[in-house]
Amino acid sequence: MKKFLIASCAALLLPTAALADVSAELVVASQHAGFASKAPAIDAVHMHLHHVVNCLVGPMGTGFDATNANPCAKAGNGAIPDASAAQKTKLQAALTAANAGIAATDVAAAQKDAADAGTAIDGAK
Question: Rounded to whole angstroms, how far apart are CA atoms 125 and 114?
């Protein structure tokens, strides 16, 4: 019984990364990249791209924007921190594209960046 209690308590102390669901983070980030690529107005494109960034970097990551939603909040620490080494390069490309879209002022350019981010995310799945 003592060993069971010790093991149970130790499991409670595991970092959130042990409970991460990278698959879920990638699905949600990809969905929001898709929403952004089809959004008719620049504000909507930017909003969904902020969601993509927040899903990719997680709440402790560079570029996380707490003024925007984090639709991946319950899935882990962010897709990039939770990803395998092989996935990280593709996700870094997605992050670069998403940030380019956020910086864009032209709707078509931002939508293209969003589509590029989605392609990179899907390539990391």
Answer: 17
- Residue position matching structure tokens 């594209």: 97
> CB–CB of 82/20 below 8 Å?
yes
Which ranges of 1-125 would DSSP assign to H, the alpha helix?
A: 2-12, 22-38, 42-57, 79-82, 85-103, 107-124
- Domain residue ranges in the chain: 20-124
pLDDT tens-digit profile of 81-107? Answer: 999 999 999 999 999 999 999 999 999
70: left (phi over 0), alpha (psi -120 to 50) or beta: beta
Instruction: For residue range 41-80, list pLDDT tens digits in order.
Output: 999 999 999 999 999 999 999 999 999 999 999 999 999 9
